Amino acid sequence: MPFSQSQQQIIDRFDTTVDHTRWHDWKWQMRHCIRDIETFEKLLAYSFPEKQRNDIERTIKKFPMSITPYYLSLIQSDSTDSIENDPIFKQAFPSVKELDIMDCDMEDPLHEDVDSPVPGLTHRYPDRVLFLVSNTCAMYCRHCTRKRKVGDIESIPDRERIEQGIQYIAEHPIVRDVLLSGGDPLLLSDEYLDWILTELRKIKHVEIIRIGTRVPVVLPYRITDELIAMLKKHHPLFLNTQFNHPREMTDSSRKALEKLANAGIPLGNQSVLLNEVNDCPRIMKSLVHKLVQNRVRPYYMYQCDLSEGLSHFRTSVGKGIEIMESLQGHTSGLCVPTYVIDAPGGGGKIPVMPNYLISWSSNKVILRNYEGVITTYQEPSSYVPTTCDRNCEKCNLELKLQEADEYKAIGIEKLLCDYEKNYSMTPSCHEKATKTSQVKEAVNV
Ligand SMILES: *Cc1c(COP(=O)(O)O)cnc(C)c1O
């Protein structure tokens, strides 16, 4: 693939000892990641004022910097606008605002470490686990939700730790979906990742494996033919990536996505809604269109977490709903992600969207569409609700559902059950909640 103009400029500014002919080799990219201000300034022919330099130095001490030469080459500045307003720059380059810790900020807002039965594995939802198999990333995204772990040597998972995680999964037949994340799982060597996937595939109850990676965005050259050949052996395998801005969709990224899609790997995208990066309905619409053109299904749009050092990236929830309003109905349903807030304290992902259900009577529902047309849906008069005691012939004979405790209804689903005798749920802090209750978060009264 030929070099872009900005790539050529960066190459020309590297020391003459640097063998730039290997630019498209992902290991070369990793070896030449930009980790200090001087190199950044040199490669982009840019210079920061002295005061700002000190601020950036202080920030890097707490939250290190690493940018692949490839991602650096996407930064643009034109004569009318500072490089510092560039959405690529903002995701890659430290800001002193990261040192502002707000009262609401938390080191581990999603309780990934708290809800962790073995180190590096989070089992929050009944049937799936989050498995952190790598602590390295090609680029240290400034908005990383696991910022607490970035560059932290202590938390590099070794083989023994991975084996512990695999053993946990093997011992819990309820786990049918394993989500590999990190760090970036695709920064492991082909052989090492092959080993992890092979071990997971030996476990009969693991139905699907998902990989969460930002490699197609920040290091697309990692998607080599060898990697593809290895991944293909482990189907059904899904891959979710994280494009946040339409300018990240380059020819190199397209090529990487094409290889993955051609290997039969269903691709999804998890964007993070970021202040002054993509908090705009037009930018998001352009992004989702580019994703779908490259066979990537927009999966989630995340509200920015309450991790420390991210306050300048957060938008209001209203902005997210405004973006959803601009997508739903206005473009293909295939292009519309689910907007989620990952609840602090390990509450998991909660979907949020505009209200489409306006009112309801015993025989009619009033809805509004994306254009504002208000319409009615007549409820069927012939529909006879069946009473479900979760023990009818359909369940027992046709579905052969498993009887494990984990399959029992919980939460609101349980309140809706016809057999359920409890008619309310009370938060444990409520005075009605009995002190002797064994249930931690919420109790039935
Ligand atoms: C996001 C997440 C998952 C996967 O959630 P899906 O909604 O199934 O994509 C699983 N475990 C943890 C801890 C998570 O944060």
UniProtKB/TrEMBL annotation:
One family name in Pfam for this protein: LAM_C
Cofactor dependency: [4Fe-4S] cluster; pyridoxal 5'-phosphate
MF annotations from Gene Ontology: 4 iron, 4 sulfur cluster binding; L-lysine 2,3-aminomutase activity; metal ion binding
Binding site for [4Fe-4S] cluster: 137, 141, 144
Annotated Radical SAM core domain residues: 123-334
Catalysis performed (reactions): L-lysine = (3S)-3,6-diaminohexanoate
Similarity annotation: Belongs to the radical SAM superfamily. KamA family.
The name this protein goes by in its record: L-lysine 2,3-aminomutase
Lineage of source species: Bacteria, Pseudomonadati, Spirochaetota, Spirochaetia, Spirochaetales
